[in-house]
Request: fold
Amino acid sequence: MPSMKRGVFVVILLIVFLLPAVSATISLTGPSEVQYNIGEQIEISGYIQETEDLSGQLQLSLLCSSKTYKLQATNIDISAGERVLFSQLNIPTLTASSSMQGMCRIKGDILVNNAVTETASSSSFQITNDLEGSFTLDQSQAQLGDTITLAGSITDLDGKPLEGTAEIYFVYKEDEYLMDFVTVQNGAFSYSHTFVANSAGSYKVNIIARDSLGNEEDFNNIESFTILDDLQVNIDTNAQVFSPGDVINVFGDVKTVLQDYVSTATVEISLDESTQSTSLADSKFTQDIFIPATIKSGQHTITIEVEDNYGNAGVSSLSIEVEAKATSIENSISATVLNPKEELTVGVSLYDQAGDLMEDYVYLEVYDSTNKRITETQIASEESITYIIPQFAPPGEWMLKSYYLNEETQEEQVTASNSLTINEIQELDIQLHNNLLYITNIGNVKYTDDVEINVEGVDQNYLISRTKNLGVNETIIIDLEKELPSGTYTVSLPTGFNTAEPTPLTIENGKQIVALSWPYAIVAALFVVALAYLVYGRIRTKKKGKEKELSPAERPAQKTKAPQKIRLYDPKREPAKGKKVSLTFEDKQHSLEDFKQRTLEEIKRTEEKIQKDSRRAHSFSEGKLGYVTGRNDPVEKPKVTEKPSTFSLFDD
Reply:
């Protein structure tokens, strides 16, 4: 291993002694341009600074992309401390050629004994065949028959005027047309062209310029222009609105796009399918046209077509209005039988004397079953409007009327009507709030049926019943604390569709339960005696005449005793005062079953009388247990849910 290290050290020493012992600085300060055209001379500048005597060669090379172009080496003999400029040396000139195109740089090497001792490079520059140019057109728009002129100036990148040729191309749509070759002298050229028929459109200009050295440039889209074949036709009439049979005077003038007068041209004037011809005079025209008596109402178009001798043509038109006379109206309705709160969609169509739809406005009115006008609105023909039938709309036959109003006479020119039927609705809204029962007629007629509310208690069921003709939007209020004893209940509130919603109810300050008096005790005792007589006495009812003894199978079946519902106080159901009830058998002609029935009825009447006596003290002070509020009631009803007393009949 030590012998190998010594061998490597000896090789390094030999290399060091063999290299030239020089110390020089080379600098390249050129070239002065960043771009050079083909054929231009590339300036090379720089200097060599030596610290010791130097005798060798300066080798300059041009490096372009992957190619290297070496110049002839220049001998140099420089003393120590001397600085020599490239301009002091006999350096060969460097001219750009077409093969050198691209990014290039100059490399300088100092050679001593054919070995490179110092290297330097210049900044990069480009060798190209590009040219520069500027171009102008005398006009960007021209008519058929006009002449346009293209002028240009072309130079190399150094500003030197081009001496060569130029190819002129016009591009129309996707096609490129070679128009001409022109000579470029001292960098300038000029080209003119006159356009003829069938060559209108938009054009672009391309130019290819070149010189004899190989510089060449494609100038694409340097200019654009438009060749027009349009003529501007101005048209007018003596009026805008006409009646069938009138005469229209049509007049106007014709000019080019550049507002030049058109000397000669043919003019054709058309109204619908009728055409008349005339000619220009000093770029103007005039003609009378007769309107047929059977012409349709509405808008019609007058068309003017003009064409000159060069192929320029123009078309213009205007609209006139032929008056229409309204003759009929058709109403379309979504339904003829409706319920309150349902939607009714109405469409109206207005027709003129030709049976065509008119674009105008029609008045629409709605009358209820009392012939009262509910609403009036104005809609356009062929449009529709949606009404909402009011909740309390009076039932019966309603009428929908539409009419067209003559603006001049302010009279109904055309009318149409349809009848509607609004159904009767009997419906209640029952709500419970703070132990107050609100019963509201939300139908559109008086509610005449009885109102019954079931109340289920822990030990007893109750039935609250009212007979009342409730007016539309009228409410009756029942205070349940004055109807029911204190306790917990479940109230069945109707929800519609023969269903009821159970609602919990708690009565804290309910009515008092009055204990039964001695008449009830007497009746109960009689009932016990009767039962004892049935069991132990085996009493058999005897019938007069040919009546036979009833077998047990022929005896009337005893009704199963159902849970009692106590019907609360109602003056209409109170029995007449002073009526006596017999509690004894009549000559044993009624069976024991009859006796039992009578006994039960007596118990019920006695109980009702006791309840009646208990309520009278409250009834006398309050007047009545249920009180009614409505449209004529001065007492403000507590607000449970918002029930406005007035309604917008229609939501227009």
